Q: What sequence folds into this?
């Protein structure tokens, strides 16, 4: 009887162990199947999501391209209209002997005219460009979009006069109201770092901080080239004067652009 009970318990434990192993195997199979199902849904869901995004992104892109094509067509037509207007204006200017466009030449500073005077320099040009220059005519000097001063072609040489030099005078606009004035190299300021703008009408409102640009009315520069900023304003006889902190410095060297507006130089007031 004792042996029968022992055999019973041994068989019982064997059955339990076998059942547990079978359960583990079945559980592993169930888990593996669940993993495959989850992976299947994840992959296919991502694929559907990607397809959805691609479809609608393509639709958006097509719509955007349609707008761009429409805008491009509009720009092309506007450009044609501008070209037509430009051609008509050039034809009118040609009949009046007006220049159609300004000429711009590249020059190079070779040396100062006199040692210790940094507001006068000699400029070199190629031979072909020199043939286009007129004797004693004034030209604008520009570098990096900033007015440096003026240049005069005389006796086969081009001499530059930077802002502040007595020979350097040209017309400017001041501020949003475009007050007229003349950057006057003959008028000295209390601070040698500033340039003077003279003959500003009193009835036009200007203020400290106003931007100063070339006005292109002097036959020297084209309009709207940056010159500097107003730092001081005071009355002088029947006009206003302003001290200008110029953006250019007299130590400028190297390459600079020579502007030929194509118009005759204006006479400045004495």
A:
């Amino acid at each position: 009887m004792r042996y029968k009970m022992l055999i019973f318990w041994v068989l019982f434990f064997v059955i339990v162990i076998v059942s547990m192993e079978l359960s583990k195997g079945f559980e592993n199979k169930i888990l593996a199947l669940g993993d495959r199902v989850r992976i299947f849904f994840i992959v296919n869901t991502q694929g559907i999501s990607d397809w959805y995004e691609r479809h609608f992104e393509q639709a958006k892109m097509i719509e955007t391209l349609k707008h761009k094509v429409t805008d491009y067509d509009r720009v092309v037509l506007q450009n044609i209209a501008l070209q037509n207007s430009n051609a008509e204006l050039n034809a009118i200017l040609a009949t009046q002997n007006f220049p159609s466009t300004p000429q711009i030449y590249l020059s190079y500073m070779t040396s100062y005219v006199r040692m210790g005077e940094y507001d006068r320099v000699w400029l070199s040009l190629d031979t072909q460009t020199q043939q286009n220059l007129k004797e004693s005519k004034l030209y604008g000097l520009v570098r990096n979009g900033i007015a440096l001063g003026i240049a005069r072609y005389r006796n086969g040489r081009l001499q530059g006069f930077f802002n502040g030099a007595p020979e350097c005078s040209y017309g400017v606009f001041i501020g949003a109201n475009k007050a007229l004035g003349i950057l006057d190299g003959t008028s000295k300021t209390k601070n040698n770092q500033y340039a003077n703008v003279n003959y500003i009408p009193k009835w036009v409102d200007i203020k400290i901080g106003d931007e100063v640009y070339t006005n292109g009315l002097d036959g020297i520069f084209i309009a709207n080239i940056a010159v500097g900023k107003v730092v001081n304003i005071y009355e002088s006889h029947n006009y206003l004067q302003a001290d200008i902190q110029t953006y250019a410095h007299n130590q400028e060297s190297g390459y600079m652009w020579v502007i030929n507006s194509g118009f005759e130089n204006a006479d400045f007031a004495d």
